[in-house]
Design a protein that fits this description.
7 helices; single chain; membrane; transmembrane helix
Length: about 200
């Protein structure tokens, strides 16, 4: 019979330098991603009346922002399934940007179909990443999970709207604003988590 006893984890042990670095990287990433999404929404709100070169350029830029964010996230994330999902999302967003650029020639309905399909798959991927990150180091990830779930559901409605009589791109500004707010909220919660862990280890 073994006489070894489990050593209880201490707050200092549960907050390793690598975990602290990951939190800091994600905090900056979420904050930047959120601010860019809100800025994009403001720009697109005044430029989407016609699907012209400016509108299509903005439409292509939005998934590219997500692709770059996924690349930065990938580089800051340890090896594992979470990292693979992040890489998948980066590739997906890059392909979505290309597809949206092509769909721009087909008008509002085509763009909304592609954007909706991207929102569904990327939202599902975001939920998976949020679930993987839940824990004492990065918190419960509720903003990430809610944002991903909403993206999934909203993407379905976009495809339904695109098949209707009067599809509109107005909804995309709302989508980006909502996503940006959730990213900023996740950054705020990570800031709170950092302070909480520093207080415990002080």
């Amino acid at each position: 019979m073994s006489t070894q006893t489990a050593t209880p984890s201490t707050p200092a042990a549960s907050s390793s330098p690598s975990a602290t670095g990951e939190r800091s990287s994600l905090l900056r990433l979420y904050l930047g991603r959120g601010v860019l999404a809100i800025a994009w929404a403001a720009a697109f709100a005044g430029a989407h009346e016609h699907v012209d070169a400016v509108a299509v350029t903005l439409l292509v830029v939005y998934p590219l922002i997500d692709a770059v964010s996924s690349l930065l996230d990938y580089r800051a994330t340890p090896n594992g399934s979470e990292r693979r999902v992040t890489a998948f999302n980066g590739v997906l967003s890059t392909l979505a940007a290309i597809a949206i650029g092509i769909a721009g020639a087909g008008g509002v309905a085509s763009v909304l179909h592609v954007f909706g399909a991207w929102a569904v798959v990327s939202g599902a991927a975001q939920v998976v990443v949020g679930i993987r990150r839940r824990g004492p180091e990065l918190g419960k990830q509720w903003p990430t999970l809610i944002s991903g779930g909403l993206s999934f559901l909203v993407g379905i409605t976009y495809n339904i709207q695109a098949a209707g009589d009067n599809p509109s791109l107005d909804v995309l500004s709302v989508y980006a604003t909502g996503g940006g707010v959730w990213f900023v909220l996740q950054a705020v919660l990570l800031t709170w988590k950092n302070r909480q862990l520093r207080t415990r280890t002080a």
